[in-house]
Specification:
By secondary structure, chain A is of the alpha/beta class. Helix content of chain A is 34%, strand content 26%. Chain A folds into 2 domains: 3-238, Rossmann fold (3-Layer(aba) Sandwich), CATH 3.40.50; 256-334 and 421-498, Rossmann fold (3-Layer(aba) Sandwich). Chain B has 349 residues and is mainly alpha-helical. The chains are: A alpha/beta (510), B mainly alpha (349). The structure holds adenosine-5'-triphosphate (ATP) and magnesium ion (MG).
Chain lengths: 510, 349
């Protein structure tokens, strides 16, 4: 059997850690091959080795049965390997076409860039694989899902035969995810081969042919997806049994902790996105906000946390008005925030993990005294937290940038939950986490609830909303249109409500 | 990774300096001079006797401070091209206070030094607030502020501090940094107590940046403004603070010249270049306080030693400028050097 790609016995070390230890993965031509493993298992590292970003210490890479030496991404491109990174690499003010040709500009016979030709080619590629990308839009104007397709086009334009997707669905809405699945299917139909990294077992079951599992840097094996199921995959990956449904007691809601009345918030383009929203979260209660992306969820969070100004309306925390306070004042009023975009807001990537752990508390005792930092205390705290939240890092002195995506997320969650704020806003808290980590984060949230804290959970994963929330608030067009109990509803009904169907909502509200 | 970065921070400048010196030697060879004699002359010119040593330290003093001024702002992600203007305005303010106030030394001297720092700080404050509140790019504003400083200062010297003369009177002893003791030690060079101030400033920068919550915030803002805002830091305040402190360092450099080296201020036909050299010093010193002290000493020595090269080795002084330029070139292209080091390490394995 000829394989499109073979990575044999790959070993890759980083200072203090073996990220890949003797891993083998063989990609058949025309298959979608999943790469599954816990956070920090070494998936991204392995793919970066294949793409020429890292050099392995040991092992062999073969492309179409020929041994190759991929020392940089250009060589990977020439070998027909393309990668869609989790964090896109696009130039915002450029158009789609300009971004795609960047570095590989087609020229006419006078040596001038021939944009028209490129544009046509891109249009053709887009039509062929059903990508529906407009070659002339500016990157800054298109959605995250579209930007991802531009990345896909970029690899195709460079003649990729093998496409690597590193957690492509983590940033997508459910609708976009199913479209991406379609696109992947049409790619393999045209003879491409795909390696897909994802933490969502459902997606693996849905589109993948085979799945290679790695655990703590070691290869566990490869299974045929048709011969396995999600539970088995999960336990293969974690090495123990995983419960998908989190156990919890009945909620004991107390006083209102968060109380929002008639809130209006504009986005950066001065359009109202939150339009007269009312919402309450009580002590000892988890309220989940369900909604299609773009219905004002981000603006709502930003308004509560002080990152955006509100226009009118009131936001009260513990019966104290906080709207338009500074983020620091809001934090000190007892609000914690796990931000949606961990690289933009959650972390200073060039700070060590230790320094990031005190991002909200560095100015307080014992981390500093009379403005002088006490690094001993800072790093001691960090040691405790990384143990408690299972953040896998060589040390607390390691830069946040060097951690795997999931472990960065766990560090943020640890920091915010540990402060035990009266109101915790968790926006997509488990994005990019493996099933084991998701389970333990859900447990932590429920623990906080049982301590009498109020929790506002925003997630695009209906599973997560249904599983963890005590009450689901459906957000549509800048308002909460319905409040339902998860045990009295189902995904279908939620879906309808989220799409703005008011019939049911009306009944419920009475 | 951390240790790797630290290693690069030290190795790259050292290799750059060596490469610059080697390239200088090749140029000397090519133009028919003996590089060994040239470099011996350079060395003697910088460290040969007490006098040259004293002058080297004198040159080093303001370079340390301007290097700090550039590096400090850079830690917050700001390019302080305005150190030059901050030097000039600090110089003016220090001499001014030195001239008009009559007080015992214990008050007069600190006051004059402080005046230099405050004036420089103010010159940093303006670009800072424009950046923080209106998003005007600090590079453009600081460059313009350089010219404003230069021409305003010249005009003030001519029409306020003197009656149309080009140099002010000398400041009184009570405001002077000059030290008879140091001069006696160094065969009457112009070395002055300012070097202590410069070294203390370097320590201060290190302490602020590495040990205090101010430094924690300043660096965080430099790395990621969104995250800084999220965690409750006041981004605008930090940008302004950074520029003010940076300006104060450069203003001190001006005070060193005014109160130490010259004891007066003269109309300038062009920039002092202390501020611009500060950019190079910061770059070579990897924006680290200790590195900056070393880099400033190197630049001070090269500039002082250059004077000896034409007389004893027949090498034109311009060659030193070329060497300095090459060193900067090599530091700036440190990417190449990093790459070469990594290659080298790989091969070893
Ligand atoms: N540049 C780097 N320097 C040092 N260590 C690194 C670097 N990149 C990754 N690591 C370490 O290697 C290990 C594997 O990381 P990798 O990013 O491959 O994990 P992953 O399987 O992709 O995890 P996730 O699902 O969380 O994205 C982690 O322990 C990580 O801290
Ligand atoms: Mg990863």
């Amino acid at each position: 059997m000829e394989y499109a790609i073979e990575m044999l016995n790959i070993r890759k070390e980083f200072p203090g850690i073996v990220a890949n230890d003797n891993i083998t993965i063989q990609l058949k031509k025309g298959e979608i091959h999943a790469l599954l493993g816990e956070n920090g298992a070494g998936k991204s590292t392995l793919m970066n080795v294949l793409f020429g970003l890292y050099q392995p210490e040991k092992g062999e890479i073969r492309v179409k049965d020929r041994k190759v030496n991929i020392t940089n991404p250009n060589i990977a491109n020439d070998l027909g390997i393309g990668m869609v990174h989790q964090h896109f690499m696009l130039v915002e003010p450029f158009t789609v076409t300009q971004n795609i040709v960047l570095g590989k500009e087609p020229t006419n016979k006078f040596g001038k860039i021939d944009i028209a030709k490129a544009r046509k080619e891109i249009q053709e590629l887009s039509d062929r694989y059903g990508l529906k990308v407009d070659p002339d839009s500016k990157i800054s104007d298109i959605s995250v899902g579209m930007q991802q397709r531009v990345e896909i086009l970029k690899t195709l334009y460079r003649g990729a035969e093998v496409l690597i997707f590193d957690e492509p669905t983590a940033v997508l809405t459910p609708q976009e995810i199913s479209e991406l699945m379609e696109i992947m299917r049409s790619l393999v139909k045209e003879g491409k081969s795909i390696i897909l990294i994802t933490h969502k077992l459902k997606e693996i079951m849905e589109v993948c042919d085979r799945c290679t599992v790695i655990r703590k840097g070691k290869g566990i094996g490869t299974v045929n997806v048709s011969e396995t199921n999600a539970t088995e995959l999960a336990s293969l990956m974690v090495g123990r049994e995983v419960h998908f449904k989190t156990e919890k007691k009945e909620a004991q809601p107390g006083e209102n902790v968060l109380q929002i009345k008639n809130l209006y918030v504009k986005d950066s383009r001065k359009v109202d996105l939150v339009k007269g929203l009312d919402l309450e979260v009580k002590a000892g209660e988890i309220v989940g906000i369900a909604g299609v992306d773009g219905n004002g969820q981000s603006e709502l969070i930003e308004a509560i946390t002080g990152l955006a100004k509100t226009n009118s309306g009131s936001i009260r925390v513990n019966n104290k008005e906080i709207s338009n306070f500074s983020p620091r004042k809001i934090t000190e009023s007892g609000v914690g925030h796990i931000p949606q975009d961990r690289h933009k807001y959650g972390l200073v990537l060039d700070y060590s993990i230790g320094e990031n752990i005190v991002l909200q508390t560095y100015y307080k005792k014992p981390y500093s005294k009379a403005k002088v930092l006490n690094y001993k205390e800072i790093f001691r705290k960090a040691e405790d937290l990384i143990k408690e939240y299972d953040v896998r890092t060589p040390s607390v002195y390691t830069k946040a940038r060097a951690l795997s995506g999931g472990n960065q997320q766990k560090a943020i969650i640890g920091r915010e939950v540990d402060r035990s704020p009266d109101l915790l806003i968790a926006a997509q808290p488990t994005r990019g986490l493996d099933v084991g980590a998701i389970e333990s984060i859900h447990k932590k949230l429920i623990e906080e609830r049982d301590k009498g804290k109020a929790i506002l959970l925003i997630s695009f994963e209906l599973d997560e909303i249904m599983n963890v929330s005590d009450r689901v608030a459906v957000m549509f067009d800048g308002k909460i249109v319905a409040n339902v109990k998860p045990e009295e509803t189902n995904e279908q009904e939620l879906g309808l409500l989220m799409a703005g169907s008011r019939v049911k909502a009306g009944e419920r509200n009475q | 990774m951390i240790s790797n970065n630290k290693m690069f921070g030290i190795l790259v400048p050292i290799i750059s300096v060596l490469l610059g010196l080697i390239a200088g030697a090749i140029i000397m060879l090519g133009s028919g001079h003996n590089p060994i004699r040239g470099y011996v002359a350079l060395w003697n010119g910088a460290f040969g006797d007490g006098y040259t040593l004293g002058e080297t330290i004198r040159r080093t003093t303001p370079l340390i401070l301007t290097g700090l001024a550039v590096a400090f702002a850079f830690k917050t992600g700001l390019f302080n091209i305005g150190a030059e203007g901050q030097v000039i305005i600090g110089w003016l303010a220090a001499v001014w206070v030195g001239l008009v106030i009559d007080a015992p030394m214990i008050i007069h001297l600190p006051l004059s030094v402080l005046a230099g720092a405050i004036a420089g700080g103010l010159w940093g404050f303006l670009p800072g607030i424009l950046k923080a509140k209106l998003g005007v790019h600090e590079v453009i504003v600081t460059i313009m502020m350089n010219y404003i400083a230069l021409f305003t200062t010249n005009e003030i010297i001519r029409s306020v501090l003197t009656d149309g003369k080009t140099t002010t009177e000398s400041i009184p002893q009570t405001a002077s940094l000059a030290s008879a003791w140091l001069q006696g030690l160094t065969l009457y060079s112009r070395v002055h107590y300012g070097i202590l101030i410069a070294l203390f400033a370097a320590f201060l920068m290190w302490f602020i940046i590495e040990r205090t919550t101010y430094g924690y915030e300043l660096k965080a803002v430099g790395f990621n403004q969104h995250a800084s805002n999220y965690s409750g830091m006041n981004v605008s305040k930090n940008i302004i603070l950074s520029m003010v402190i940076a300006g104060a360092f450069a203003g001190l450099a001006g005070a060193m010249e005014g109160l130490g080296t010259y004891g007066s201020i003269s109309v300038m036909s062009g920039f002092t270049n202390l501020g611009f050299d500060g950019i190079a010093v910061a770059l070579l010193g990897s924006n680290h306080a200790f590195g900056i002290v070393i880099a400033a000493l190197l630049f001070g020595a090269l500039k002082e030693g250059a004077g000896e090269m034409p007389t004893t080795a027949g090498v034109p002084t311009e060659l030193v400028d070329i060497i300095i330029a090459l060193i900067i070139f090599f530091v700036a292209s440190s990417y190449m050097i990093r790459w070469a080091i990594l290659r080298f390490k790989k091969e070893e394995k």
